[in-house]
Amino acid sequence: MGRGKIFMLVTLVLFAAGCTTGGTGEQSGNAGSAGGGGGAATARKKKGPNEQIFIGFLMDTLKEERWQRDKELVERRAKEVGARLSVQVANGIDSEQIKQAENLLSQKVDVLIVAPHNGEIAATIVEMAHREGVPVISYDRMIRNADVDLYLSHQVVRMGEMQARYLLERAPKGNYIIVQGAPTDNNARLLHDGQMNVLKPAVERGDIKIVVDQPAKEWSPKEALNIVENALTLANNNVVAVLAANDGTAGGAVEALAAQNLAGKVLVTGQDAELPALQSIVQGKQTMTIYKPLQPLAYGAVDSALKLARGETVQTNDTVDNGKKKVPSMLYEPQSVDINNLVATVVKDGYQTLEKICEKVPAGQCPKADAAATTTAPQ
Ligand code: BGC
């Protein structure tokens, strides 16, 4: 496909995206399976049990720490199972992601794992792949309005509920600021749905007031800083909680709070259990984060890729509506993490070390290494 054609496709998909309403991809509770034939527009390519599988992993970004881990884990697993792997990173550029897909397809890739930059535009990638009989796994973020073969992620709606519940239990009354994730990312919508499931009754009772509720483009910490700065001005600094969508935006929120001497006095959520966020938690600035174990996701993606490429069935535990179909899905459990259980969760799992988490605080402020035995997870 030439540049002109790619541009036309992107334009068309953008137009379609603009026309789409509703259907954010609700998570339902149906276990099932993916693969084993159907789905693709053209007859599926099928590899024999002893043939090497060529996997393409199309990533949006490596900006956040978590994506660097995803990349390493996918590479490690591919090596372990003897698959050939090509990882491509689009750095937030949709036309680049489509071009990378096109290149991999021309190199006769057997299966694509896609973490889309824009969940609507990436539907083009699914169409292109299916024309070549190549199955597509939507990784962490859903590709919307497309015939996706399999979706692997965490329970995103539940994560939003966990963040909101955490805040509501500790700050049942007062002004809240919501900093959403990128509007191009279906996860941002699911997260917000979950948050509102919990907050709506409290808003209706008049217990809490959401003073600002805005998306941070590209999940940008700088955008989050601006949103929180403006919201604080609007509310005369009278705010009890910031519902920040992930750790990057939480960092921006904490910076804006610090400028008003409010860091540590206002609750701040996050997501990803990134090292700077955990350091901020032990410093008392960020309040909580959501830990999403990445190994099951990354290994699950590689293992499922092999199965799909061989025409085998993949066991799933859910389905998620992406606007076009109920996509067979494997959704993993997230965990709520704060100062009381970080040792029992992220440290115990080897995701981060206590030494690094406590690098910036005096020893007395660091949670005890043996806390794993005594603490329980917060709700
Ligand atoms: C991921 C988060 C990540 C965010 C920004 C989301 O789709 O689920 O883990 O922080 O994108 O990259």
Task: Walk me through this protein's architecture.
By secondary structure, the chain is of the alpha/beta class. It has 12 helices and 15 strands. The strands form 4 sheets. It has a 7-stranded mixed sheet, sandwiched between helices. The protein has a 4-stranded parallel sheet with strand order 8-7-9-10. A two-stranded antiparallel ribbon has the order 1-12. A hairpin with a 4-residue loop joins strand 13 and strand 14. Helix 3 packs parallel to helix 4, helix 5 runs parallel beside helix 6 and helix 7 crosses helix 8. The longest helix is centred in the middle third of the chain and has 20 residues. Bound molecules: beta-D-glucopyranose (BGC). The site of beta-D-glucopyranose (BGC) has 12 residues, from loops.
Strand content: 15-25%
Give the bound compounds.
Answer: beta-D-glucopyranose
**Major β-sheet, in short?**
7 strands, mixed
**Low-pLDDT sequence parts:** 1-26, 37-41
What is the general shape? globular
The level of helicity is: 25-40%
What integer value in Å does the Rg equal?
Answer: 21 Å
Strand order of the largest sheet: 3-2-4-5-6-14-13
Beginning-to-end CA distance, first to last residue: 50 Å
Structural class: alpha/beta
The total of beta strands comes to 15
Series of H and E elements? HEEHEHEHEEHEHEHEHEHEHEEEEHH
Query: What is the number of helices?
Result: 12
Report the average pLDDT across residues.
91
Pick out its properties.
single chain; about 375 residues; alpha/beta; four-stranded parallel sheet; 12 helices; about 40% helix; about 20% strand; binds beta-D-glucopyranose
